[in-house]
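fyi for ur records
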Amino acid sequence: MSAVPRTARGTRTRAKLLQAAETVFASVGYHEASIVKITEAAGVGLGTFYLYFDSKQAIFDEVVEDLNRRVRHAMTDAARAAGTRLEAERAGFRAFFKFTAEHPALYRIIRQAEFVSPGALRLHYTRIVNGYIEGLKAAQLSGEVREMDPTVAAWALMGIGELIGMRWVLWDEEGADPAPGARPDVPEEVFEEMMQFIERGLAPGPAPGVGRDSSPTQTQEGNAP
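which gave:
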């Protein structure tokens, strides 16, 4: 559990603890992290921690939720000014890559959540996907994207962004472990190649499967007088 601060000073202290926890979890991992390390990084006393969080697990879950909230807001704010769904996809992906470049801890902490807090991991991805699903449904109604299962498409789109960001934002050129500090953005040529792939997949067009099962013989028979 975590407590909501009642004063502005308490809000600032809680924010300092969350920022310190994000840094500690990202740098040493959940199991090596400790409440003492978090409070030292935040510059507050050990007792102060327990005014806001009752355990290391509680602050870890809050860090995951905080990162999720911030990345979703970044993507939503960027996409809001777009005129079409495809423009919104482009703006949202740029915002996601920018956020991950500035907060590489996102990847490390979410990966830890798979083992430390599966519920927090599922909540993180589900919240992002739910926004995607609603956007795709609205775009289908307006004819901006083709008919498809919006749930499958949403998970596929998120997977694309996740792995492109991991490869070109987080990893070193040699493919080594993530390095500390902010990372460069996705190269423009990589971004454009990714967006062409996505735009072709979403763009309105013939129904999927049309012509795929038609052999030359079938075509000839169908055209025969």
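The longest helix spans residues 56-80. thats all i got for now
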